[in-house]
Amino acid sequence: MSQPSNLPTNAADSAASVLSEARDGMLHVTINRPDKRNALNRATLDMLRGVFSDAARDTTLHAVVLTGAGDRSFAAGGDLREFDALRSEADAGAGALFDHAAATLDAIRATPVPVIAALNGTALGGGAELAIACDYRLAAPHACFGFVQATLAITTGFSGGADLVALLGPARAMRVLAQAAVLGAQEARALGLVDGVCADGQSLGEYVAQFAQPFVDRPAHVVRAVKRIAAAHRRAAAASTRDEERAAFVATWTAPEHWAEAQKFLDRRRADTQAPSS
Q1: Total domain count, the chain
Q2: Residue 98: inside a domain, yes or no?
Q3: Mean pLDDT of the 254-274 span
Q4: Which family does it belong to (predicted)?
């Protein structure tokens, strides 16, 4: 498992960027940056890691639900405005950007009860990696899912590539990463990236509660025992691929092709922000 890096974070931003509430045997965790499309900066990743680490010690929990604030984005990906300054191999690799994000996803993977990602909107790039680190993904009908990293000339940077390969198999995972398509909820479900899509007229919250009911109905220690089996399998698979995934990310992140695409992306965002409203 990755260890948290010593990259600086803003504690005040961290405290505001993630909300959590325990009720009815479940912990509800919300990424709370709707004005930034719930993009994942370092402070938010730190806060998420802390929330899930605390959840691991709560023996009363039966499940954890992770979602985003609002109805536009679950998580739009890594916060490129912040990560743009991290350009060297040392910035990108071991103990830095990749390992810092991977430590958060590892805390989610290690949570001793099932973790359900409630996709309330777009889950793109690092947001898709965050969702796939959870045990299940349930989507609102308008949600979208996409491993779009290749559009920025990079590969998975949060350690989610191993999860994708485990879920789809190597051949299909390679195609998904190369296509870098944004999939609608039903498309993602057909491919196996999403476990279910709520029906029209049903709220995502109701659908998640219904899906989680079997875990809530069982004694907490039984649920933890079931998760222990699944988590052991996931750890064994991830341990053999982490170094390769990190090296692949560093090689693409530090390539000039990535910085050219990143600049185009930032320029488009800047133009969108400065455009007059109608």
Answers
A1: 1
A2: yes
A3: 79
A4: Belongs to the enoyl-CoA hydratase/isomerase family.
